[in-house]
Amino acid sequence: MSRQELRAYQPPVLAIGGVGGSGTRVVADVLSQLGFYLGGDLNSALDNLWYTLLFKRRGVTTCSPPEIERLAGVFVSAMRGQRSTDAWALERIDDLAAEDRYGHDICWLKERSTSLRERLSAQHPTGPWAWKEPNTHVFIDRLAEHVSGLRYIHVVRDGLDMAFSPNKNQLHYWADTLFDMTDVDPAQAATALRYWRLANERVTRLRESRVLPILEVGFECLCEHPTEQILSIASFCRCPITRQEAKDIGARSVRTPSTLGRHREMELTTLDADDTHYARESRSRLSRLLLDEARVQKQTCFEDATGSPSTNETSKSEARLSPRQTVPESRRP
Questions:
Q1: How far apart are CA 71 and CA 92, in angstroms?
Q2: Contacts with 154 (C-beta within 8 Å, 6 or more apart), sequence order
Q3: CA 271 → CA 178, 202, 281, distances in Å?
Q4: Residue 322 has what pLDDT?
Q5: For residues 21 and 124, which has the higher predicted lDDT (pLDDT)?
Q6: What class is the 3-37+129-331 domain?
Q7: Beta strands in the chain (DSSP E)
Q8: What whole-number distance in Å separates Cα of residue 250 and Cα of residue 231?
Q9: Where are the domains of the chain?
Q10: End-to-end CA separation in angstroms for the chain
């Protein structure tokens, strides 16, 4: 779908995140094929590096509301392709590139600040937009206060596989800041599983409190049922596509990695029993939700095809949303 075609449906702003290594790149690629602009400074994993510069830093959790509002405004302007004349914000961009961070040296950060400043120096209208940066989940609740119409897609990969992932970046970055995980060994699978659980439980609490609309996407569900999961994502994005279009996108985007199910070859007795149970239940829950939603979609399509008493377009759209996606009227963008 082209951005011009997508614009006609007035889709919301989308953000994608998850614990590092969860498969967020695949979901970002799906949104790109749906017509969403992902940003002008991306790495091979489709991470939005403007977001990384502005918000992937330990100090972000203690930023004042006015600073968050202005930095969010700069990010939104860049994504919309709007010129920014906020002198404080432009100076702050340079400040954020002035010191090394874990995983990013000054040279790399200055490349990001230069790219962002260039983007903000002129008008570049983009149409519908979204961003993907795994660390987004850390700050999504505060960004929701300043980004109008924001919706969040949280990618969840099997926690037992994640326990043995070599990607420990978020664990190093946020474990102590967010969850007071001190005096732990990041190299241990049990530590990685505990961080995975705490991070995903936090997002679940945000979803249940309806801070903003949140869709949880199981990576295994995406690999095993790509068409159904992509239809679910498109519905959440208010982007109408056919089943064949979803199937085609899945064929282009979804590849089952060789590491799927790697925990089956690992010793699991070192993992906390409650964390292991939570991981298994999470995978089962996401699978059940997707299959239940797929049954609703098929029933809706059947009623439309047979001319059975149905509903107007608004209620059809709501019928495609599972309970985890429904949001109160006052929160809808």
A1: 9
A2: 17, 18, 137, 200, 203, 207, 214, 215, 216, 217
A3: 21, 20, 15
A4: 38
A5: 21
A6: alpha beta
A7: 13-17, 130-132, 150-156, 214-218
A8: 10
A9: 3-37+129-331, 39-126
A10: 22
6 Cβ neighbours under 8 A, 6+ residues apart = 34, 35, 36, 127, 128, 239
Instruction: Tell me the pLDDT tens digit for each residue of 126-158.
Output: 889 999 999 999 999 999 999 999 999 999 999
Residues 164-178 have pLDDT tens digits of 999 999 999 999 999
Provide the pLDDT for residue 327.
38
3-class DSSP assignment, residue 239: coil
Angstrom distances, CA of residue 194 to CA of 120, 205, 206, 291, 315 = 40, 17, 19, 28, 40
pLDDT tens string 230-249? 999 999 999 989 999 999 99
In 180-272, which residue ranges form alpha helices assigned H by DSSP?
189-208, 219-224, 226-236, 243-253
Residue with tokens 């059975």: 308
Cα separation, 70 vs 123, in Å, equals 19
Structure tokens at 25: 């790149």
Determine how many CB atoms are found less than 10 A away from the CB of residue 33: 17
Sign of the Cα pseudo-torsion (9, 207, 61, 146, in order): positive
Q: At what angle do helices 243-253 and 24-34 cross, to 10 degrees?
A: 130
312 token code pair: 């107007």
Within 8 A by CB and 6+ apart from 64, the residues are: none
